[in-house]
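User: Hi! I'm a student and our assignment asks us to look at how structure tokens line up with a sequence. Could you show me two examples?

Assistant: Happy to help. In each example below, the sequence comes first and the structure tokens follow. Example one:
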Amino acid sequence: MTQLDGPRLLPADGEVRKLVILCHGYGSDGRDLIALGEAWAPLMPHTAFVAPNAPLRCDMAPTGYQWFPLNSLEPAERYIGAEAAAPVLDRFIDQELARYRLREEDVALVGFSQGTMMSLFVGLRRRARLAGILGYSGMLVAADALEEAIAATPPVFLIHGSADELIPSRAASDAAELLATLGVPAQFHICNAVGHGISPEGLELGGDFLRRVLHP
């Protein structure tokens, strides 16, 4: 099975008590999201950040990576892709827990776009509850099958731009509403006039969420 790795940001004193795993979007890489850790690090002492490169090279962006191919926009294709990539991310989480000798409740997942799809897909299916899942500009994969598959109910915060040209902002509200019916403490926020990206407002709100779930 593919081994994931990517840029890391460690606390200044080297003491890791909490961990944030950042899952990038389609065609990007870990360097793109580790900048989020640089912005949030002052809020969360003793927190490490790691942004693994997805397991597959991206045909549409040769210097980037993908969690799964996007050859089709059909929901069934997204499910097949996410299911295939899930064991790789799942094992990476286990390895990071062992690396830093942490518990599941010490770890949060953050995703952007396809990385949000993977964070939700994996985080809601792990047997033990993670500290939380923060998702930007993404969506639930195989939402209609989640009731049977869900195994954990970590807090979830979904942030989306109202002007997202790739994934409509209603994906965030629809996902949060469904998750709430399944016992997941989920919330969402729509950033006005923001496209498929992370705004300063979204960055601040995401940092507040992570600080709350990791340092209660």
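Example two works the same way, sequence first and then tokens:
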Amino acid sequence: MITGSCHCGAVKYEIRGRLLMFAHCHCPDCRKYTGSAFSSVLVTESDGFRLVEGEDRLAEYQSSPGKHRFFCRTCGCRIYLRAEQRPGKVFVRAGSLDDDPEMKPQAHFWTSVKAPWHDITDSLPQHPEGLSQK
């Protein structure tokens, strides 16, 4: 089990499902939403993700049709995303983890639209677009 929480501690969650991927997303939505060059995201199974505290403190923002982002309404910490085109998956913001996922990032996505002021300097695979619709 892996635990996570928001900055103020009002929202807490557990991941008991499989971790499917750990990646850095460079799409404009993730850049704007995080205020940084990219978003580090863990993809897990919906069935294994559970809010254990503070569900009433969550705010939801639909950043584009079918893409729902959840954050703490007290401290603003971004916690997870659900995408209708990716049923059965939850995209957890790695920065909200309290525990080591025992997995390292595996790839960069949407590098074709990355911030022009950021250079990717690691050796992870780079994909010009997002995940295929598997």
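Here is something you could point out in your write-up. Helices lie at 28-34.
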